[in-house]
């Protein structure tokens, strides 16, 4: 008998939305930026600086991961920045105002994040309010409530030292071997969130429906799937991830700052888009978003080290976002 | 039509009269010009009324006026009466006659036999994209036109020996109603049969199917599965009662086109392929995918091929596989062979026969009469939202179907 290769043989497990070119392009940009900045300034490739970059990526990166789920369904979440602040405030209320244990505060931040996500999902799935509008409204609601609850003043975590260690401590401290190499917990939590999210997106029914909804929501509905329930689930998950970001930022600052937050949503969306998540839905990876978040913070950090004024740093970031999306369009056209 | 603009704004779109050296639109002139046009064909409308506030019949008149305002010598009207009631049709015919008197030629496309006889001077029949004949309307009987539409005197098509379906009633629909689209539709589906839904475009077949499947709401009506009354409000309800729907628009309603073959195959039953923690068992999905790719001979380079790169026939098979994985008892096929080449069509026919042999029950909506005649045990014919007849056995001929498909409720005289 002649041996013909079975055309149906499953060669490898499929990764969805594995837009390899975009990821490669993003990764190549990141590497070349690292090379250019390293050559331009001796201060760039220092352990302290690399750790500073990772630390500043953590919050926007976690937010980016949350919004990646939503964007893949072809939705959008503009509320993540101020909801992050709202979660931080709630942690402050539980820990500082009520004097309850730190773990309860952490739980409260996660729970309130998930709850706001649930509300977003319900507005969008059940009341059919477009995601842009529903989450724009929620952005303002969260901002307003944060200011009301905190009385427009920051809530400090001065009585609970351990809270600050959530972000700034290091259970992965190698400074005994390499000077200054103590990776902050915030970075480890960021990577942890990325790993778990990647798993959920690729290996669970929730993840599969995330792609399916972005690919063709009507076909999913006509397959007899309870589309509303899954959509609410996806927004709830994104909200819980935003809660993680709320803990990270307030722990890092050792305070919940009620005025902070607005603008973070756009950095997070930009990170996702640079990483190849399609705003049209159906495509995207967690790794891509993580790389996208690093590109943004390496760029800001590098320009700062080269003493480029902050105004210009912002301008360049904007140009990078536009370029990244255009590169994606070019790739699709082929 | 731009629904938010006024009648006059619609008519003059792109060539609005201007004033002040072309910087400002001259609404006043536009409105008086429009009024003049309205008067010309004696219709009583305010040019400043927003189009969205008008009934369809009036909107149509505005479109006619728009065409006239271009000094058109020829108007082509494609099914102009589809959404009109009898009085409105009379008004339209009055305008058409008036236009004719002023020397405008009109091509009037319609499937309504009585209208064609009434309004036209000459009738041209087309079939399957080819010209058949042109006759004088006054000299010809309706029967002759129908024969020309069907083509051959069709006794040639022989149906393969169809096993007689059981008498067991699997699905029953009573008094289904929704506005003008579905008017008091009743039918029964017997286990193991292929039940045809025939009728012309827009007769309401797809609407009935989508209502029964829960994809669209209906006003009144009862659905019984295996003799038990069930409540179907969403597709998920229908699916849980063993009903599957294969839409005529595969890409829009059937497939997640950007995803691969195996994912589409399990799309309706993903929860069965998950463990307690919601984790997907990809090995099982691969196995099931492979099994159905084999048994339905889906031609694909691999299970991880994105379905948008498959041919129409193979995409159709992927959707069939999706419902078979879900163990659906009743499969509603809506134009399953549209946009599929001839070879693949015959494969789909064979597949339909095989499915009923395996005990599945099929509702086949098709506009291709030979297909209906060839495959169906029974045929229900619809016209304008109503059931106009049921045919079975040797009664299933293209002539009979066409006659029932053009039986209108009231023939206006």
Strand order of the largest sheet of chain B: 12-13-14-9-15-16
CATH topology descriptor of the largest domain in chain B? Rossmann fold
Please name the fourth-level CATH homologous superfamily of the largest domain in chain B. P-loop containing nucleotide triphosphate hydrolases
Beta-strand content bin of chain A: under 5%
Contiguous uncertain segments of 5+ residues of chain B: 153-158
Order of helices and strands of chain A: HHHHHEHEEHHHEHHH
CATH class of chain A: Mainly Alpha
Gap from first CA to last CA of chain B: 31 Å
User: CATH architecture of the largest domain in chain B, please?
Assistant: 3-Layer(aba) Sandwich
**Shape call of chain B:** globular
* C-alpha-based Rg of chain A, rounded: 21 Å
Query: What's the mean pLDDT score of chain A?
Result: 89
The oligomeric state of the chains shown is: heterodimer
Mean pLDDT of chain B: 86
Task: State the strand order across the main sheet of chain A.
Answer: 1-4
Overall tally of domains of chain A:
1
Which structural category do the helix and sheet elements of chain B fall into?
alpha/beta
Q: Biggest interface pair, residues each?
A: A-B, 30 and 43 residues
Regarding CATH, which class of the largest domain in chain B? Alpha Beta
Tell me the number of strands of chain A: 4
- Span of the ends, CA to CA of chain A: 41 Å
Written account of the structure:
The complex is a heterodimer of chains A (334) and B (413). With 334 residues, chain A is mainly α. Chain A has helices at residues 20-40, 47-72, 80-97, 102-125, 131-150, 161-168, 185-203, 205-222, 227-253, 264-274, 286-305, 310-333, and strands spanning 155-156, 172-173, 182-183, 255-256. Chain A has twelve helices and four strands; from the N terminus they run H-H-H-H-H-E-H-E-E-H-H-H-E-H-H-H. In chain A, the strands form two sheets. A two-stranded antiparallel sheet of chain A has the order 1-4. A two-stranded antiparallel ribbon of chain A has the order 2-3. Chain A is globular, with a radius of gyration of 21 Å. In chain A, 50% of the residues are buried. Chain B is an alpha/beta fold. Chain B is built from 15 helices and 16 strands. A six-stranded mixed sheet of chain B has the order 12-13-14-9-15-16, with helices on both faces. Chain B has a four-stranded antiparallel sheet with strand order 8-7-10-11, covered by helices on one side. The model of chain B is unreliable at 153-158 (pLDDT under 50). Chains A and B meet through helix 8 of A and helix 8, helix 9 and helix 11 of B.
């Amino acid at each position: 008998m002649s041996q013909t290769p079975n055309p149906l043989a499953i060669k490898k497990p499929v990764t969805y939305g594995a837009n390899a070119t975009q990821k490669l392009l993003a990764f190549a940009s990141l590497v070349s930026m690292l090379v250019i900045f390293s050559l331009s300034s001796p201060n760039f490739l220092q352990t302290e600086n690399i750790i500073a970059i990772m630390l500043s990526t953590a919050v926007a990166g976690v937010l980016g991961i949350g919004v990646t789920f939503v964007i893949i369904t072809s939705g959008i979440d503009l509320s993540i920045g101020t909801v992050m602040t709202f979660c931080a405030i709630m942690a402050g209320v539980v820990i500082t105002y009520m004097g309850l244990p730190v773990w309860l505060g952490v739980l409260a931040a996660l729970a309130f994040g998930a709850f706001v996500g649930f509300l977003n999902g319900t507005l969008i799935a059940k009341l059919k309010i477009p995601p842009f509008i529903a989450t724009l409204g929620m952005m303002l609601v969260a901002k307003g409530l944060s200011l009301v609850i905190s009385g427009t003043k920051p809530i400090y975590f001065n009585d609970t030292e351990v809270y600050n260690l959530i972000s700034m401590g290091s259970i992965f401290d190698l400074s005994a071997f390499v000077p200054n190499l103590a990776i902050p917990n915030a970075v480890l939590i960021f990577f942890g969130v990325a790993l778990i999210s990647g798993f959920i997106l690729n290996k669970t029914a929730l993840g599969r429906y995330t792609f399916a909804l972005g690919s063709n929501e009507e076909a999913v509905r006509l397959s007899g799937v309870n589309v509303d329930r899954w959509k609410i689930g996806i927004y709830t998950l994104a909200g819980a991830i935003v809660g993680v970001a709320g803990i990270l930022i307030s722990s890092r600052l050792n305070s919940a700052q009620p005025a902070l937050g607005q603008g973070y949503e756009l950095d997070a969306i930009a990170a996702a888009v640079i990483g190849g998540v399609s705003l049209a839905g159906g495509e995207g990876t967690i790794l891509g978003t993580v790389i996208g978040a690093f590109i943004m913070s390496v760029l800001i950090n590098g320009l700062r080290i080269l003493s480029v004024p902050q105004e210009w740093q912002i301008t360049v970031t904007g140009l990078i976002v536009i370029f990244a999306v255009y590169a994606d369009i070019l790739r699709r056209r082929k | 039509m731009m629904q938010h603009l006024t009648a006059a704004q619609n008519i003059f779109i792109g060539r609005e009269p201007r004033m002040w050296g072309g910087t400002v639109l001259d609404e006043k002139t536009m409105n008086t010009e429009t009024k003049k046009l309205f008067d010309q064909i004696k219709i009583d409308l305010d040019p400043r009324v927003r189009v969205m506030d008008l009934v369809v019949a009036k909107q149509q008149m505005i479109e006619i006026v728009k065409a006239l305002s271009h000094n058109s010598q020829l108007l082509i009207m494609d099914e102009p009466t589809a959404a009109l009631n009898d009085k409105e049709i009379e008004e339209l015919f009055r305008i058409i006659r008036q236009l004719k008197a002023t020397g405008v030629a009109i091509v009037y496309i319609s499937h309504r036999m009585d209208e064609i006889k009434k309004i036209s001077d000459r009738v041209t029949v087309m079939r399957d994209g080819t010209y058949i004949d042109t006759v004088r309307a006054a000299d010809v009987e309706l029967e002759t036109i129908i024969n020309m539409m069907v083509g051959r005197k069709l006794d040639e098509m022989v149906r393969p020996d169809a096993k007689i379906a059981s008498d067991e009633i699997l699905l029953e629909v009573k008094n289904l109603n929704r506005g003008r689209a579905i008017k008091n539709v009743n039918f029964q589906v017997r286990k193991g049969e292929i039940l045809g839904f025939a009728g012309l475009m827009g007769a309401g077949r797809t609407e009935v199917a989508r209502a029964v499947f829960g994809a669209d709401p209906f006003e009144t009506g009862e659905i019984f599965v295996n003799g038990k009354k069930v409540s179907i409000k969403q597709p998920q309800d229908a699916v849980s009662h063993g009903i599957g729907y294969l839409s005529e628009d595969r890409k829009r309603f059937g497939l997640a086109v950007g995803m691969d073959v195996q994912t589409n195959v399990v799309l309706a039953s993903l929860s069965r392929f998950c463990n307690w923690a919601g984790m997907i068992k990809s090995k099982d999905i691969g196995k099931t995918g492979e099994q159905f790719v084999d048994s339905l001979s889906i031609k694909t380079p691999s299970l991880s091929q994105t379905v948008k790169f498959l041919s129409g026939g193979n995409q159709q098979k992927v959707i069939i596989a999706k419902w078979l994985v879900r163990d659906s008892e009743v499969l509603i096929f809506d134009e399953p062979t549209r946009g599929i080449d001839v070879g693949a069509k015959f494969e789909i026919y064979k597949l339909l026969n095989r499915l009923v042999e395996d005990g599945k029950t099929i509702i086949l909506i098709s506009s291709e009469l030979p297909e209906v005649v060839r495959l169906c045990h029974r045929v229900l014919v619809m016209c304008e939202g109503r059931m106009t007849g049921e045919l079975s056995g040797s009664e299933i001929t293209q002539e009979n179907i066409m006659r029932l498909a053009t039986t209108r409720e009231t023939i206006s005289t």
